[in-house]
Amino acid sequence: MPHLSVNRSSKPNCRTVWLISVLVGLLAIHTYANDVLPVPQQVSLSANMDSQQLSISWLAGAATTFDLVILRTELDETVLSETVSVMVSQLSGRHEWNWTSVEPLECTSLSIKIRSREGQTTSEWSNTEILQGSDLPSEENFQIFPLDKVVPVGANTTFCCIMKEGNQFGKIRYGNTDLISTRLSRRSYATTVFNQGLSSSSGSNVICYDNTEQLITGVAVFVGYPPLPGDFVCETRDLTSTVCLWNERRDTNLYKSRGTRYTLNNRPCALEWSRNPQKEYRVANWEGKWTLVAVNALGQYSLTDSAKLSHRVNPVAPEHLTSVVHALNATVLWQLKYDGYYSLALVCQVELTSQGYKTKHTFTGVGLRSAVLPDLYPYEDYSVQVRCGAQQNFWKWGSWSETISFKTSSLVPESPDMWVWMNKDYTGQVMWKPLTRRQSRGLMTGYEVTLWSPEEHLQHTEIVPLDIFAVPINLTQIATVSSDNMVMATVTAKNTEGVSQPASVLIPLRLTDVDPLAVSRAVYTDQGFSLFWQSDANATFAYVVEWCNASCKWNCLVDWINVAPGNTNVSIESANFQPGVRYNISLYSSSSEAPELLQRWQGYMQELVPSSPVMSLLTTQQDSDILLSWEQIPLVSRRGFVLGYNIYMSSGSQFTLLANLSDPGSRSYKVKSMPEGSYKFTVKAYTSAGEDTGATASIMLEPFTDRLILEILASLGVTALFLVIVTFICYKKRQWVKKAFYPDIPEPKLPGDWSRSQAPLDVKPPHHSLVHMVERPEWDSSKEALVVIPEEDEDEDGQGIGEALADTDEPTSLRYYNQVVDERPIRPRYPDSSDSSASSLDSARTDVTYTGIQTSGSFVFQLDSHGSSEGHQPQADPSFCAGGGGGYRPQMQSRVVSDDTGPASPNPYPDPEAASGGGYKPQSSWQMDSPVEDGEGGSRAPSLGSPTSIASTQFLLPDGEEHTEEKRQPSSSAATWLTNLLSSTKP
Amino acid sequence: MAARRTRRITGPDVSRSTVARAARIAELLQYECSILLELYREKESFTADILVDGRLVSVPPPSSQLDTRDKLWRLHSALLQCRSLLDRAIAREEEELGGGKKGDYETQRKVVKDRLSYLLISTGELLKTAGGPALLTPNLEGLEIDGPTTLFELKLWVHRIFKEVDYWTKMAITTLEALPSVIAKESMMTTRVRSTRSARR
Questions:
Q1: Residues of B in contact with A204 (CB under 8 A)
Q2: ipTM for the assembly
Q3: Which of A29, A602, A735, B102 is least surrounded, with the fewest CB atoms within 10 Å of its CB?
């Protein structure tokens, strides 16, 4: 603060004198002023706690400017220090000044002092006046202010909390929010809530807690809006009194005791509290001018209205409605509530309701009390209500009266709408549409259908119950007996009032079987099938458009509409139209003559893809071409106009489009020049909606067979010719052939003495049997080399065992079935001739050749199934031993060798001879003669040599056997073998 | 089962079924009262531990010396006072704080009021069965039936009444659950005494 520092000069005495003079002067002036400005006296305080307003008044003479100081007494904090200009109130003669405190005045004590001011001159301060707060020690309780205050939305409100004596302040909460508080005095704390939003209807709570948060006090604060009424209007209903109406255009959020109060022309409206915003208040007389004032704690709002009574007539509802009812009209009567209405020109509205439809009819008249309602339907239920208004200076319609109902009287029914469907003979049906309730015009009792021939006066009438709307007819008899060309069919409807006018259609008796017209296609649009036709300008007849399912041919369910004369187009729509159904639509003339078919259409409401593929799809090979042919899809399944066919060839899952036949009449398609192989074809018909699923047919394309057949025939011919030539040559050269291939061989002579007991196997092959031992170099061990060459008799021999048994003495052929293991037992043979012995001896040298002789029609017993099934039965089977000492038991040698032979071992046939005699035992001699064989073959096939052993069969011709043969007949050759063979066949 | 269905209901059975029904009603009321308290606290931004000092209902103190009839009388009397307080609280609340749109709170308040009436009917029947007075008039003397003057105090008072209903509902459950066996035994004893007396006669 250098500029405030004192400047020490060299002449202090002069300056001091000057300064003293100034001070003295100022003191003198001040002393003068004090003498002039009055000190405010009798300071008085008046507090309005609700508005938190403090009114201060005092006496201060003519002074007009004052300094005011307001302090919080306890903490001596300044709340206000202000210089104000206050004039003397003319009323009280005192200076009065109002101050609104931010805090409630109860929060703490306030000290107020005032002094007069004039310029810079002020008087002494007045005595300090104190406005006592509620925090005085004498008031010990917990308190909070302001109490239950109502504030507008957006307001800022300060709350103060005075703690209970001895308790410490905790916090103040507003709703769920803790607020920041300031201390006003030792026990008083204040907080301010800013920009308050709408409270709940029960008010928002401000709660003050002590430091333990146990002790609380609080207040509710209501935040809302000032009133805002609207649509204020007054009217009369009885032509005398006034009814004023208005709306609450805004919910003030203040209800019950805090709700809006109204005054009308300064008179309180005693309205019951209601949440309904529509308000209505009645005044006994008509004042012509009204002022509505709405008031609540936050403000008020005024509305005015004025009008003449005649301009505000709102009649009350007509009363006591009655009706006078006829079939086609009715009169409604009512009464007026107030006498004044009888002289008032009224306009009244009658609302007529029938079958859910409402119509309004307006009537006028002075004191109007009735109205005639024309054009009613007979036998119809109606309900009526009436309201009225002033005809002149119409203000508004009055209230609707109560509703009354009535029913009009009955009339004879309307004529039915009929039509006739004729089949292609003299049968058909007469149809009519059921009458609607209104067309019935009464309680229906039935219909009457009549067929009559005008010229022949033939008539047939049939009464039809209510629920039938079609009657079959048969005109065959009439057509035969009547000379008329026409029969008239009429239909009448009957109700309780009588019979309707007849509806009739002429039916021609001379039916033509010709369908004279081309059929056009009808297109379906949103309005239905749109039909157009040419009309003769002079034509005066009406039309009938008939339609039915095109697939129907007999007694079809048809529908029809009537078209007025002169029309050349119509759209037909029906709820019965279905997608995918073809409809025949026919246009007939409707006149006094018989209906004449004028035009015909076909159409679909919506085309669909065919529901089934083409019928009878066939594939035919034509050389290297394939012809596909089919039949068309049945009409019911087409479900659209077939536009053509697509031909596909499928290979696996792939479809290849071969052709698109756009002609819907196509029934075949030829696939040309196809190589040999298997093919699958699919034919799909298509409509505008797309293809069907397709019919599929397959074909195996084979080579051209004619040529093949020719080639085969030629080959066969050449072969046959060759055989004939060979046969012929052989025949011619048969002697040479015999010499060359099978010369005569001398019979063998056996050395040694053959006792009977050791007789060799004397097997005499039958003269007619021929056994060939075939030795094939390509012999397969699995296929024995012995081959039976059947001869003519063998078949006979082989026919049965019984036959063979019956001829046991005859030489029997030994048959070799090397490829078939015949398990049938072999019947032993007994030698009966030397020739046979010799030949058999010869065979004995190669006795193994007998091994394997298994089956012969004469020899072999056919195994029964038991034997077969018991193939593994032990060899000790008693049947083996049945012979005891005698019979031929070839298995004896092999018995111990293997059980495997079991299945092949036949049960010996119980031959009595074999059982009694010793019999031939070839195994013994064979064993003796063939020790080596035994030795060699023993290890492999102990049964080797057993001529009837199945096991032996297996060992007959293996390599080992060949060795055996070689040892026995080292010089054997094919020629020898053939010779032996041929010799054995000699007779 | 058929025998059970056709069995004639006797006195103790009536008591037991009435007690069970009353207990069931009390349990329902207790649940509904807890919901009401929750809704009220939410509406008024009160915390659950808001100070509630002292009881509003005035009945004799509980004692193990009390017999069934006295216990029932005490319970019934307390519930009667509860209903009077609740009626008054609802009326005051509607009068001074109502007028707004009705919501869940108002609905629940009515539910509790109705349920309390049902419970009173049941306890009244039990009291009658136990030999108590047929009609009991609530003793409203000493009750703060008119409530406070400031709106906040009124809200606290309403809360206190709801708490009081809640408290006495719990007491009702406790009392009723302890009753059935007692009533049965006492009924049996009563029957025996009567039989003995009849025999003596």
A1: 45
A2: 0.83
A3: A735
